[in-house]
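Quick bug: DUF6160 domain-containing protein output formatted oddly.
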Amino acid sequence: MKKFTQLTLVSAVAMSGHALAMQSMDDEALSAATGQDGITLVIAGDVHADVIVHDKDGYQSLAVGGAAGPVATLTRTDLGFATATAGNANASGAIVMKGFSIEDTSATRTGIRVHMDADGNAGAPVLNVNIGLPDELTINTGDIYVAESARNSSHAAAYDNMGAYANEVKILDNIEVVLGDASMNLQLGNSTQGAMIQLDGTITDGLVLSGISLYQPKGTAIPYGTGSLQVASTTGDASGDVLAGIHLGGVQLKTTGSNDLIMDTSINAVNGGLLIQSNGAHDINLRDVKLGVASNASIGDVALTNVTLPTLVLTGH
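Here's what came back:
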């Protein structure tokens, strides 16, 4: 009898453990038991790619393209474009970024950290996604070209020719953008922060863009001046790319009254497009501004201070 009693007690203890294991656990209880809460994703590697953005209908005037903008938008004929053929096959264009990259250039290489949590929020559930950048994240746009696209309006429901383009012309040199120690918080379902995406954090020494060159378009010669002023309007390199343009040694964006950029920007998807709103005043500093070819002497530096950034709406047409 005594042995039977002991066996019963042992069985009861064992069964209580199994019963506890079968009980449902909410997120808070799971966190307390395991030390884990939600999902964390670390993007540890670098990203390298060529990026092609296809405009399948090419240039369209306001009457064709949409309701936003000036009433008297110039037509294709006004601007001297070729007459568009069926399906815009000869009108479709592309923006090509050769050598785009995102690299963790910080000393510790902690990667981009993504932390996701789902919260019931008293009947208004929220999926919260927080994205944290490493101490230094370097983005290179790669050289930027405009090109003829191999996709057009007839490809609306197909994926062919996604990487195809031709007759590219360089319009911008690679632009290097250095970010660091900033965060982006994305909320889906419902929002408690008042925006779909909220950008916060401090970028030490401001947001810096390096090596900006905007090139003169190819075309007929542009004569000007006489005598000593009569020089070639454009010169090209071995590949035929024009070298004359507007060149900036660097651009810095920082918060007015600070050496850093204090981020406070909200982004929302609205009926009219993507609405971007930024709070506070900023300074925009342009360093080593050169006009013509990059070997010309600089005209100096340009500073725009106490600038209130406008509300931006991005939309397609």
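Actually, after a second look the formatting is fine. Residues 118 and 290 are 51 Å apart (CA to CA). Closing.
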